[in-house]
Design goal:
By secondary structure, the protein is mainly alpha-helical. It is built from 13 helices and no strands.
């Protein structure tokens, strides 16, 4: 086998493994509305604090089992890396809080739309920051996504702020995380660790108001809050592994799995109303997904 053939084989293997990691991450995220609806009696900020703390503990155990502290130490000796991971942590933390608020307010459809918008954000960031180039089919996909946003604006009469916030924060998180040369587990540990000072401040503030963040719940609630750490850590590790193997646009297009599952959950299980005007929004987005997937398949076969 020639060197060029071997390189193509390695690239294909890397792409396939990246897609597998992405499918795993987005599949788990797709079930999040069902899981976190069970914690609807806990405030979104309290759930966020529990997610951050328990996720950090879960990743600590994984690092200890893998003896991965050397990689963590290497990352901590690089100020630029720590700064970017902190920025990534705050972005994903803001995204978590926005999502939890949307579930609490019965706005899962709006949250679903936000994650549908994430690929558009990823494509734009990929072009502007990473200088990734799109072919004609990919531009058509972007155009369909823009048309979907325009239809949503006309249908609602205002910008869908919840959707834009969720799409924007997660798109920026993907960009920052892609640029950090740290393995998935070490990076996630440092991310969750950097959230803990904010968690501690919020916990102290709530304590001064007579409210406890981590105690005072029934046994089932405590179990679900602890499980939220595993539910948080696992897809984020899979997502980080995917971003290191795929270009940002491909990562973004795989994202459609998550909001599709959330949309189905919102309409069929939670009974949220899907306005007729929004059907066109989702139809345009799904058409964009098909066009982009077609382009990606052609690229893969040529590679």
């Amino acid at each position: 086998m020639s060197d060029s053939s071997a390189a193509r084989t390695v690239d294909k293997g890397k792409t396939l493994s990246g897609i597998a990691f992405g499918l795993g991450a987005y599949g788990i995220w797709g079930f999040f509305p069902l899981f976190f609806r069970q914690l609807g009696h806990v405030s979104p900020a309290d759930v966020l604090c529990n997610r951050a703390l328990w996720a950090c503990l879960v990743v600590t155990l994984i690092l200890a089992a893998r003896r991965g502290w050397r990689q963590v130490g290497a990352a901590m000796r690089q100020p630029g890396t720590l700064l970017r991971l902190t920025a990534a942590a705050w972005l994903v933390g803001a995204n978590w809080l926005g999502f939890l608020w949307a579930v609490d307010q019965h706005l899962v459809i709006a949250g679903s739309l936000g994650y549908f918008l994430t690929p558009l954000v990823n494509v734009l960031l990929g072009m502007l920051v990473l200088k990734e180039r799109l072919n004609a089919k990919e531009w058509v996909a972007v155009g369909l996504a823009v048309a979907a946003v325009g239809n949503e604006f006309v249908a609602l009469g205002s910008l869908p702020w919840v959707s834009l916030f969720l799409g924007g924060t997660f798109g920026l998180y993907g960009l920052v995380r892609k640029q950090v040369p740290v393995d998935a587990v070490s990076g996630l540990w440092l991310e969750t660790l950097s959230m803990l000072p904010l968690v501690a401040l919020y916990t102290l503030w709530q304590g001064s108001q007579g409210h406890t963040v981590f105690t005072g719940h029934d046994g089932l609630t405590d179990f679900l809050l602890a499980m939220s750490g595993l539910m948080t850590a696992l897809p984020l590790m899979l997502f980080a592994a995917a971003t290191q193997r795929l270009n940002l646009a491909t990562v973004g297009m795989l994202m459609y799995i998550n909001p599709t599952m959330q949309l189905v959950t919102a309409v069929w299980i939670f009974g949220e109303a899907l306005q007729p005007a929004r059907l066109l929004t989702f139809a345009l987005i799904w058409a964009g997904l098909l066009v982009y997937s077609w382009s990606g398949w052609q690229k893969y076969r040529k590679g």
